[in-house]
Structure prediction request, 147 residues.
Amino acid sequence: MIEQVKARLRQLDEIAPGAIGSMLRLEAVDYEEDTGVYILRAKTERWMRNAHGTLHGGICNTIADQAMGTVAYGYRPGDGIAPTITMQTDFHRPLIPGEDVICRVRMVSVTRTLLRAAAELYRESAPGKLCVSAIATFFYVDPDRDR
Prediction:
């Protein structure tokens, strides 16, 4: 399964170079078969900070959304799209600009058109301390479907 996620990340770079997904340099690192958790890493930069010097909440949301969406999209074949239709995010501890973010993503449920995923974000330097948690639903649209 990790190969599908890696393929989707490569595809994103080909389809939309310079898009936010590329700017985060999201990388699929591992898949824990026993828990069904995908491990991804995102790169952050100093410009992503807020006025308090921590990673901006919108960037945290973007990392979680991009990681979950990439994994969810990997569950569907072909060239369809899987936009986010709902997302809830909770902030537990700050993430630090310039430090890699580790994203633990698992699929909660998968139906023909709805994919639900959960993510936990950690600082790479403190992998046991949850910083951000999120859950989202994605709507899969097959490109061959009549509209």
